[in-house]
Each structure stands twice: as structure tokens, then as C-alpha cells.
Write a structure and sequence with these properties.
Length: 135
């Protein structure tokens, strides 16, 4: 594949806009008001009476708060982890069941026709078997 060279003059450029000339006093007033607003925006607010400065906490207070925050986060992390473990323990136990090809085809057909998952059918069949045999 051969790349052609692209030259700067192959691109068309739009002419630059000329600044609009305001003949009326209204336009000049708008420009002056915009400039004043921009100047006010960039200036620091003038102090009114006294300066408000937040007091710095002592070093031991900052360390105490930091240690407390770290302990709370660690405790939260541990509780979340144990909650997830308990949830995983209570929910599922997996069993691998080898099926013959014909049995699997019948199971897939039943699941598709009844719009349920194959696992639901397997769970119902196992539950029925265990109930019938007194377990």
C-alpha cells in the first residue's frame, strides 16, 4: 500500500473574520461592561473587616483523626468481605452430573419449550426424587 504525500496547500482554509465595528454607543457600552465584568472576575475579593482563616489542627489531632478514619475503613472492608463470604456460602453448591447425549438433548428441548433453565429442571427433578425417597 502506497501512501501519498499530503501537502498543506491541498487543504482549503476559510478566511479569517474581521472584527465587527460598532458604530452605536450601545455596542461600545456592552464591550465596556464585558471588560469590567472580566476585570472583577479576575480580581481577588476584597476583605471585609477581617480575614477569615480556618484554624489549623494540631499534629496529634490530625494523626488521631487519620488513624480513626483508617480503622473505620478497615472495619467496613472486613464486614463487607465477611458478608460476601456468608452470601456465597449460603447460596450455591455445585454438582457436576455426566449425562448421555440423548438425555442432554431431551433436557435442552424441555428447557427451551418451557422457557426455563436446565438447572431449574435438574433441581426440581432432584428435589422430587429426594422427597419421594424420604430424604
Amino acid at each position: 500500500m502506497n501512501k501519498g504525500t499530503i501537502d498543506f496547500q491541498q487543504f482549503s482554509l476559510a478566511p479569517r473574520r474581521k472584527p465587527a465595528v460598532h458604530d452605536t454607543n450601545e455596542g461600545l457600552l456592552e464591550v465596556a461592561a464585558d471588560e469590567q465584568a472580566a476585570d472583577l472576575h479576575h480580581q481577588a475579593p476584597a476583605p471585609i473587616g477581617r480575614q477569615t482563616v480556618l484554624p489549623a489542627l494540631p499534629e496529634d489531632e490530625r494523626q488521631r483523626r487519620s488513624a480513626k478514619r483508617a480503622a473505620d475503613q478497615d472495619d467496613t472492608r472486613r464486614r463487607l468481605k465477611s458478608l460476601k463470604r456468608a452470601k456465597d456460602r449460603a447460596i450455591k453448591f455445585y454438582v457436576n452430573v455426566p449425562l448421555e447425549q440423548k438425555m442432554k438433548a431431551r433436557l435442552m428441548k424441555a428447557a427451551h419449550e418451557n422457557d426455563v433453565k436446565m438447572t431449574v429442571i435438574m433441581q426440581a427433578a432432584i428435589g422430587t426424587y429426594l422427597e419421594d425417597n424420604g430424604y
